[in-house]
Design brief:
The chain has 825 residues and is mainly β. The protein has six domains: 184 residues, no CATH class; 115 residues, Immunoglobulin-like (Sandwich), CATH 2.60.40; 113 residues, Sandwich (Immunoglobulin-like); 101 residues; 88 residues, Zona pellucida, ZP-N domain (Immunoglobulin-like); 170 residues, Zona pellucida, ZP-C domain (Immunoglobulin-like). It is built from six helices and 63 strands. The strands form 15 sheets. Strands 6, 7, 17, 18, 21, 22, 23 and 24 form an eight-stranded mixed beta sheet that branches. Strands 52, 54, 55, 56, 61, 62 and 63 form a seven-stranded mixed beta sheet that branches. Strands 8, 9, 12, 13 and 14 form a five-stranded antiparallel beta sheet that branches. A hairpin with a 2-residue loop joins strand 48 and strand 49. The longest helix is centred in the first third of the chain and has 12 residues.
């Protein structure tokens, strides 16, 4: 004030004294003060001085003083309305004839030299109080040289609600007087403030108030409008500015209407979070100044300051999938948002990552700016990321699914909200596994070449999942590496299938089926089988002592209970693995005997009956033939035992190609380290080994070695490295062979071959065709004592063997292939 005293601006103090403090959504503070506020200093109501001291308490105290000395000639009658939350102050002077007459008795009976207020209530009721009591109730009362000021909140106890031409008003009717001896100074006052919210119609704000507010002109006989002006932020705007901003001010005989397009200059959009949902509002502080003249007052100025906030407009973020499947990278955009929205984190699968962490992981999260102060965010993430869900569908088709949750904050208060999204992209990129099958005397084998689904696959034989543990428990052979799966199952296993046609001229037909399933969805993506015939001599045995032994197998009857198998007179079997064994004397179990020429024949039948079925669903006839008369001739003699020798047989070649880290061949790259990065011209040291063999009479030789730009050994282009056991002489960097010395790891040096290759690249139009190269070799296994005995073992460059004699027989089962992992240039 004029004496330097400081008053804290509390809400009640502001209402009573003509101050307004408004804090917007950005936490910015607007301060308004009436020129007639409590502590403004005026000279004849023409010149005003207002000193404001601002203290910021969150940091070190700062004091700022402003002196404002405007030259201002106020109208004799002014009504000012400012709407706020908390309650708003009102400055006014007005009168009504009825109010004057009703207040006179109260004024005459009042005390001397004291300001008093008489409030006019509904139904003609009056309520008077001293000015100091009115101040205690929240009213503000003040006088200047030429003005009487009464301020009240919208929700003051003595206020009334009144609808005027469809608009709700809050009004206060009062008379304020001062009594001296032989004199009463009495001023009747009235104020009417619109309290309805604005309308939001067709993308714009519409604010309508009556042109004539009856409580302010009651008793007058004439009304003449002088001017109607609009403005923003308590400042009037000229017509040029109004037109530029596309505002509309319309005045007719009944209403004054202001229209503001949403998003127009002068207001601002703001983001909000309501119940976890994102949306926006538009805010603008409107001003209306209406000046008129009537026969009571020379001039009346009616001022309304109305803060407008549009209703919450839900804006669900839109996720756009811009992914090009051939790039194998998700490209996703989310938006649009106002600039006060910030993406702070993302959740992909089980991981929650800040934006900095996501970008350091190789994800690419970027902010994208759009016109009209909008923005969005883009995300790029590879298909092969561990957090991407992969699902096999059918054939070569599978889907990649990105499950993501975006985490946002709205500034400045960091109000959080999230938005989930699911992006699914289908690609024909599946390389299905392939298999070959073969058998030996007792076992069925399947050799499966892995595709690119095997990292998520499970192998099943029947209903049994194939793992190293289950294979060992069941007595199966199993070898699984990064390129192949080999399974060997005995033909008597309960997981093999005996075909319905049973026994053919080659023996008993048995099938082995292997199913590969997607681990997560249990969808079959590989079904392989091998069928072979096995000798039946072990199924029926006829002994000289008159005993028969019959082994009955399940010939394609689903869910067969072997204990229900029986002979003709219900003799029961004993169960072993997947078979029922009957052992009985030919004179028991309903066995028939008959004679045919020189044979005595004993016959029986194994049958299987399903419950409730008369005819057997399974019938196996068995017979033993005994010669009635026979002469056996034995010749006695002796001979020396033959020298042990290796005889040809059928089996698997287990081969491996390793890449050494140096020419000492002491350390090798593991499967998990592929693809391996090498520079152009750097030697690669390869080693090929025959696995699982302890035969010192076998020797491994390289027949051909070549390189391809793709993992498939039959793909093109190709470059020959070793041709018919010789290094390619057309190569500028000829490969070299290295000797193999026996040590703790190398038990049989003849089971190894070592050579080098200088790193190169396939070129097309002088540009590298591919960054990855795969190496392949075909090998032969030979008799180490006589390699020239086979055509394939007589290669030109096989040391010391090229001029030995050759045989005319080729044993293809001694031939195999082996490949390396990818080497990246």
């Amino acid at each position: 004030d004029a004496y330097g005293r400081v008053y804290e601006l509390t809400p009640q103090f502001a209402t009573q004294c003509g101050y307004t403090v408004h804090r917007d959504f950005w936490d910015d503070v607007d301060f308004y003060a009436s020129l007639s506020s409590c502590y403004s200093q005026s000279v004849n109501d023409l010149h005003f001085t207002l000193i404001v001291q601002i203290k910021v308490f969150t940091t070190k105290d700062r004091k700022m003083a402003f002196n404002k000395i405007p030259s201002f000639t106020p109208p004799p009658h002014k009504v000012s309305v400012r709407k706020e939350v908390p309650p708003i102050s009102t400055d006014f002077v007005s009168d009504q004839a009825e109010d004057w007459e009703m207040a006179v008795p109260h004024a005459a009976a009042g005390e001397y030299s004291i300001w008093q207020v008489v409030f006019h209530l509904p139904k003609g009721q009056l309520y008077s109080m001293l000015a100091r009591d009115a101040y205690t109730k929240g009213y503000g009362i003040n006088t200047t040289v030429s003005r009487l000021l009464l301020r009240a909140a919208y929700n003051a106890t003595e206020h009334q609600k009144l609808m005027i031409q469809g608009t709700n008003f809050s009004i206060i009717r009062s008379s304020t007087f001062y009594k001296q001896r032989w004199m009463i100074l009495m001023v009747d006052t009235a104020v009417a403030c619109p309290v309805d919210e604005v309308e939001v119609v067709n993308g714009g704000i519409v604010w309508t108030i009556p042109r004539i507010v009856l409580p302010l002109v009651l008793g007058t006989k004439s009304f003449k409008a002088v001017s109607v002006e609009m403005g923003v932020d308590a400042r009037q705007l000229d017509k040029r500015t109004i037109d530029k901003r596309n505002y509309t001010l319309t005045i007719d005989a009944t209403f004054i209407t202001i229209k503001i397009p949403l998003g127009a200059e002068g207001g601002y959009y703001k983001s909000h979070v309501v119940n976890g949902q994102y949306g926006i509002t538009y805010s603008i502080n409107l001003l209306l100044d209406h000046i008129w003249m009537d026969d009571f007052w020379e001039e009346t100025k009616y001022t309304i300051i109305k803060p407008v906030i549009t209703p919450f407009d839900l804006r669900t973020p839109v996720v756009v999938n811009n992914t090009e499947p051939n790039t194998r990278i998700f490209n996703v955009t989310i938006g649009t948002f106002l600039t006060d929205v910030e993406l702070v984190a993302i959740s992909i699968g089980p991981e929650h990552l800040t934006i900095t962490e996501a970008n350091s992981r190789g994800y690419n999260v970027q902010e994208v700016l759009y016109p009209d102060d909008l923005k969005g965010y883009t995300l790029e993430i590879p298909f092969d990321d561990p957090n991407i869900e992969k699902k096999y569908i059918i054939d070569t088709f599978r889907t990649y699914t990105l499950n993501i949750t975006y985490h946002f904050n709205v500034l400045p208060w960091n109000d959080p909200f999230t938005h989930p999204a699911k992006i699914v992209v289908g690609v024909h990129d599946v390389v299905l596994p392939k298999a070959v099958g073969f058998c030996d005397q007792h076992t069925l084998y399947l050799l499966v070449t892995h595709g690119n689904l095997d990292q998520t696959s499970q192998s099943f034989i029947g209903n049994t999942q194939l793992t190293p543990q289950s294979a060992e428990k069941l007595g199966y052979e199993m070898t699984d590496n990064s390129t192949h799966l080999m399974v060997g199952v005995p033909h008597t296993s309960h997981n093999v299938v005996y075909e319905k046609k049973g026994i053919d001229r080659f023996g008993l037909r048995v099938s082995l089926e292997l199913n590969l399933k997607d681990q997560k969805n249990q969808i079959d993506f590989g079904n392989f089988s091998v069928s072979c015939s096995f000798s039946t001599k072990n199924l029926i045995a006829c002994f000289p002592n008159g005993t028969m032994r019959v082994t009955a197998l399940n010939f394609g009857v689903p869910d067969m209970d072997l204990m229900r198998l029986e002979l003709r007179d219900n003799c029961a079997p004993r169960i072993t693995n997947n078979a029922a064994v009957f052992e009985f004397n030919v004179n028991t179990c309903g066995t028939y005997r008959k004679f045919s020429q020189k044979y005595m024949i004993y016959e029986n039948e194994v049958s299987y009956y399903q419950p409730g079925v008369v005819e057997p669903v399974y019938r196996l006839a068995v017979a033993c033939h005994y010669l009635l008369n026979d002469t056996l001739t034995f010749r006695y003699g002796f001979q020396d035992n033959p020298v042990p020798e290796v005889k040809p047989g059928y089996g698997l070649l287990a081969l491996i190609m390793r890449l050494s880290k140096d020419e000492a061949y002491t350390s090798f790259y593991k499967d998990t380290e592929y693809p391996i990065v090498k520079f152009l011209g750097v030697p690669l040291y390869f080693e090929i080994e025959l696995l699982y063999s302890k035969d010192p009479q076998l020797e491994l030789f390289l027949q051909d070695c070549w390189a391809t730009a793709f993992p498939d050994r039959n793909s093109n282009p190709q470059w020959d490295i070793i041709i018919n056991s010789c290094a390619n002489s057309d190569d500028s960097d000829v490969s070299h062979f290295y000797p193999v010395i026996k040590d703790a790891r190398v038990k049989f040096p003849m089971h190894f071959k070592r050579f080098d290759v200088v790193m190169f690249a396939f070129l097309q139009n002088e540009m590298p065709l591919s960054q990855e190269i795969s190496f392949h070799c075909s090998v032969v296994i030979c008799d180490a004592n006589d390699p020239a005995s086979d055509l394939l073992c007589a290669g030109k460059c096989i040391p010391g063997k090229q001029r030995a004699r050759r045989s005319a027989v080729q044993h293809n089962y001694l031939h195999g292939y082996v490949s390396s992992g990818a080497v990246m240039l």
